[in-house]
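Let us work through a complete example step by step.
Step 1: write down the sequence.
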Amino acid sequence: MVRAGLNAQRLITAAADLADEVGYDNVTLSALARRFGVKDASLYSHIRNLQDLRTRLALFAGGEMIDHIAAAVAGRAGKDALTAFAGTYREYARRYPGRYAATQIRIGRSLVTDSPAMRRTAEITYGMLRAYGLDEPDLTDAVRLLRSTFHGYCVLEATGAFGAPRDVEASWAKAVDALHVALEHWPRERKRSDD
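Step 2: predict the structure and record it as tokens.
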């Protein structure tokens, strides 16, 4: 490939493609350099090290994923929004497995706070949940429930762990229905009175 025009954004996009092709754990600076036909050292003027590459990849993929979700939930509320959110989340994980794996890494709090994509993720997710009448700390608890359910389902599905003859699409629909019921009947945190 051509060296001209090598920049951080091109490298991150190529790393995302590489992650989908060979798996997130196999994305290295050497593999990325080979993709561009350059030596590893050529990347260091754009990316500090492997950790920097992986962090940037996580932020890129997180932003891309929330863009897909935001488009799907626009103008929707309640179960309709939850279904669109869940389906788009799952589709992203299936279509972009390496990128999706990158979204699961732990990123420093300051980077999350400074990232427009991560702020947008919180806005979209919390906005959808506020339609269920949730406030803090219930919002955080609900986000954790959704994330663990969606992520767990996606990982188990990707590894072929659902061995029962029941159709996985039917199970997914039931899981989303159950989440909707749980959100509608959320056990709200009771506020303490200062008596």
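Step 3: interpret the result. The domain at 54-184 is CATH 1.10.357.10 (Tetracycline Repressor; domain 2).
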